[in-house]
């Protein structure tokens, strides 16, 4: 995955998480799963491009 694709995935996950958080508690399994996935993407970005 190149840098542009990874940034796109990060932004998409942030957006999805923000929308879901407007309707779900932050402790819901759905939000927790999204948060975990966002963390993985951010860690991948850090390893590859910093």
TrEMBL record:
<dbReference type="InterPro" id="IPR018540">
    <property type="entry name" value="Spo0E-like"/>
</dbReference>
<dbReference type="Pfam" id="PF09388">
    <property type="entry name" value="SpoOE-like"/>
</dbReference>
<dbReference type="GO" id="GO:0046983">
    <property type="term" value="F:protein dimerization activity"/>
</dbReference>
<dbReference type="InterPro" id="IPR036638">
    <property type="entry name" value="HLH_DNA-bd_sf"/>
</dbReference>
<dbReference type="InterPro" id="IPR037208">
    <property type="entry name" value="Spo0E-like_sf"/>
</dbReference>
<dbReference type="GO" id="GO:0043937">
    <property type="term" value="P:regulation of sporulation"/>
</dbReference>
<protein>
    <recommendedName>
        <fullName>Sporulation protein Spo0E</fullName>
    </recommendedName>
</protein>
């Amino acid at each position: 995955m190149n840098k542009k694709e990874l940034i796109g995935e990060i932004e998409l996950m942030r957006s999805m998480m923000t929308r879901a958080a407007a309707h779900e508690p932050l402790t819901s399994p759905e939000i927790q799963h999204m948060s975990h996935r966002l963390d993985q993407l951010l860690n991948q970005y850090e390893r590859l491009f910093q």
